[in-house]
Amino acid sequence: MTEALLRTEGLAKSFTLHLRGGLRLPVLDGIDLAVEAGQCVVLSGPSGAGKSTLLRSLYGNYRADTGRILVRHLGRTVDIAGADPRTILAVRHHTMAYVSQFLRVVPRVPALDIVAEALIGRGPSAAEALDLAAAMLLSLNIPRRLHGIPPATFSGGEQQRVNLARGFIAGHPILLLDEPTASLDADNRAVVVRMIQDAKARGTAIVAICHDLDVRDRIADRLFPVTPYREAA
Amino acid sequence: MTESPILAARGLTLSFGIIPALLNVDMELYSGEILAVVGESGSGKTTLLNVLSGGLRPRSGIVTYRDPGGAVHDVHAMPPPMLRTLQRSDWGFVHQDPCRSLRMNVSAGGNVGERLMARGARHYGDIRAQALDWLEQVEIDADRIDDLPLTFSGGMLQRLQIARTLVTHPRLVFMDEPTGGLDVSVQARLLDLIRSLVARLGVAVVLVTHDLAVARLLGHRIAVMQRGRVVETGLTDQVLDDPRHPYTQLLVSSVLQA
User: Which member of A19, A56, A106 has the closest CB to residue B253?
Assistant: First the structure.
């Protein structure tokens, strides 16, 4: 049996809303998830069950209440739930990438640079990084005439493809994908499915949220149910 | 991960009369890292910046700076000439009001070159070449090099101040609302400039801002201040997307969506 690249043990997450009189909203409890190299686990469950919360917790974007999030990072195991900020940034740089549903655009930065930036400090020279970024954008059907333009003016589908290009280009061993094909047409969905399948073949461990059943069936090795939290009666 | 911080503070406390400005503030900053300090007016952000950079002495607590040789210095126990030398070369300060660090009756090129000369550069050709290079990096036309800053717009003055600060390749830069008071379009350009220059030069930055979007764009880590205390600190996206302290929740929920 291969070792999991990403594993959670007893992960719990709630939100306390101080502006609502300290209202506590429990979302996740007792999550035990393990993802091995080359495996794609798709989180399933109704809207509001906490799938995105789980994905964000894995990335260290949300802070877990209890439990551990163990990541294989440069030959050792790091607990994201207890790691200091600089360690989490190092894990994000080398090991784990997250593709959100929406591109958070940086004003004035062209699409090509946004994608190439993900390669900085990872080996390729600046010129090579730009070439690789251009190739990645072209493979996602973003034509060259758009590469020099900041994506703020792009359509939703184009922005999502820039986001995907940035997430996939560096070949992180762990990928977290939140609705990677949600606003894409059939052709581009097929491209993304192929990218996910290629990443799996390279040994990437993937956790995804995906409501499109056709895409889900083509990428998922198994489903991981996330159920809405119920207070004990 | 075992390297030590370039700047560290422990237990900083200071009050102005009966008003507490800093209460037991700790912080650490590592090379190549941007720490954003956010909070409303009067929360103690600028006071913290002034104490960290040696301009203001805390009532208690200590600020330490690690020099390139690895020696650690108590910023407030340093002999004044040594502090001034640091402030002229290894450190930089970017004020909200560029007129505080620029000399308005000296040419743009002179303003940039002056900091090089203060560090000992003497060759006029080299100084002018470097000044020109830096004006280009902050996107000021080369033919403005001999113009007085008086003739510059607010955004250009801010970019000139950044060129003047970074020309000596400082290891540590303090920034106080560097984009405050600028038009949004000018602000976006300046933010992108700061972001790319800081990443390329590997500078450590303490950035004071009341603008959470600026903090998110530039800050690796964030510290939220309220009434002189750091009430919450951590990864920038963590603190802004999953705020825990009531005051941080209030700040985050009060931002207008454009």
Answer: A19
> Do A189 and A208 lie in a common domain?
yes
Q: Give the tokens for residue B183.
A: 């038009």
Number of domains into which chain A is organized:
2
Selected residue of B217, B218, B235 to mutate for chain A interface (largest A Cβ count, 10 A) = B235
User: Same domain for A231 and A186?
Assistant: yes
Residue among B90, B94, B96 at smallest CA distance from B172: B90
Residue A133 and residue A91 share a domain = no
CATH number at residue A60: 3.40.50.300
Shared-domain flag, residues A38 and A82: yes
What pLDDT digit, counting tens, does each position of B98-128 carry? 999 999 999 999 999 999 998 888 999 999 9
Residue B250 in tokens? 């209030």
Query: Does A107 contact B192 at a Cβ distance shorter than 8 Å?
Result: yes
Chain B, 15 to 34: residues with Cβ < 8 Å from chain A are: 30, 33
Tell me: do A31 and A91 sit in the same domain: yes
- If asked whether residues A37 and A132 sit together in one domain, one would say no
Rounded Cα distance, A220 and A42, in Å: 6
**Residue of chain B with shortest Cα separation from A87:** B1
Domain boundary among A170, A200, A218: A170
Residue A231 has pLDDT above 90, yes or no: no
Residue type, B253: S
CA distance B64 to chain A (A): 20
Around B218, how many Cα atoms within 13 Å sit in the side-chain half-sphere? 34
Q: Is residue A100 part of a domain?
A: no
Q: Please give the pLDDT value at position B1.
A: 44
The verdict on A188 and A208 lying in the same domain is yes
Length of chain A as a residue count: 233
Under 8 Å between Cβ of A176 and A97: yes
pLDDT tens digit string along B22-67? 999 999 999 989 999 999 888 999 999 999 999 999 999 999 999 9
Question: Could you tell me if A153 and A64 lie in one domain?
Answer: no
- Chain A CB contacts of B33 under 8 Å are 86
Q: d(Cα B81, Cα B87) in Å, to the nearest integer?
A: 10
Neighbours of A91 (CB within 10 A): 21
Contact between A38 and A203 under an 8 Å Cβ cutoff? The reply is yes
- Per CB-CB distance under 8 Å, the chain A contacts of B253 are 19
Structural domain boundaries, residue A137: 110-170
pLDDT in tens, A148-178: 999 988 999 999 999 999 999 999 999 999 9
Q: What percent of chain B has pLDDT over 90?
A: 78
Instruction: Tell me if A18 and B249 make a contact (CB, 8 A cut-off).
Output: yes
CA distance B25 to B223: 10
pTM over 0.90: yes
